[in-house]
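Retro notes, structure queue

What went well: the backlog is down to a handful. What didn't: a couple of records were mislabeled last round, so from now on we paste the full input next to the output in the thread. Example, using DNA methylase from Parabacteroides johnsonii:
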Amino acid sequence: MSKELNKYFKSESVEIARSSIQFANYNPRKITDSALKKLKQNIKRVGMLGGIIWNERTNNLVSGHQRVTVLDQLNGYDGTEETDYILRVDKVNLSEKEEKEQNIFMNNQSVQGEFDIDALRNLLTEIDFKSAGLTEQDLSIIGIDFDMPVLEEIRTGIEDMSSSYNEGKEREKKIAELSRESQIAHNKEVKQQVKDAAQKQAQDMDAYLMLSFDTFEAKSAFCERFGYDPYSKFIKGEIFDEQVERIE
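Corresponding output:
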């Protein structure tokens, strides 16, 4: 005997035209260009895995603004009928007040879980951490040792700079005119520049300090003392340095 859908599921998966969807103009969630690039790469690699919630009462997105932004780019959507396309969403029926509350709730990090560091460390041996959206700096911040591949950075940097240098007929002409000694000197200079940049990047990745408390109450008291949100995960060191008295 088949069972009915659990009562807590209030959405319905439907396929609708992109032109039926509006971005919520009040949406406070923003995304950096680098994060949007990672999202786009992930969607191109594995496809859309859900996460788009649409309110049929207002036609607004409740969640999934960045995903739809990427889909628009991939489909060349410009708002015209010729570029319209079909996508799958979770349809809900919410009042404007409920919609705004859920828009914030679904993006609120304080109501989301945190990584179990030991479990994450074990998982990283089985996956490509970059495909999971993590960076070397992310791993360092959450306490996972990461050996920066400086030589690989140098090799990649040399290839990128050489490729850029070789673009255009004018640059090719200039390279051809260089003497062998000048070319050797130029290559040495490029390698040194890339090496210096890689070493600087490695040093910058260590420019953080982890501060922990025995209880959340202790963390909250600390944050309240210095005017920080108790749910903050990061505090800018230079700003904090200006707030504390120096001990001479």
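Agreed that this is the format going forward. Reviewer comment attached to the example: The mean pLDDT is 80.
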